[in-house]
Write a structure and sequence with these properties.
about 120 residues, about 0% strand, binds zinc ion
Amino acid sequence: MQTVADALIRLKSSKFRSSFHLNEKDREYVRSKGRDVIESHARDFVKSKLADEDPVNDGKQTPMRGHPVFKAMHATGCCCRGCLNKWYKVPMHTKLNEVQQEKIVHLLMAWIDEEMKGEGE
Ligand SMILES: [Zn+2]
């Protein structure tokens, strides 16, 4: 996986990935919960939706809305194992180790941090 900064730049070149933004409701949710809680949600979603060697419903496990982290997962190409493979060459059909999971969490939070600067919709 490349650096978080490189990944965020590369994602901007994708019309689909760059179409995702936090709306005011999402931003309010992040503000009210606090960054640490959102990061713990991100960690839980990465574990439950991505970390298994063959996640249930892979390709459809991440809703398009309903939680700021879901939007971050689509925006960063971390929504399913197929996208992780395409964007970051993460091998399919293998468990994600702790280090891989943390890298994804950091990327998701970096994207959310950028959106929270108020550059989104
Ligand atoms: Zn996907």
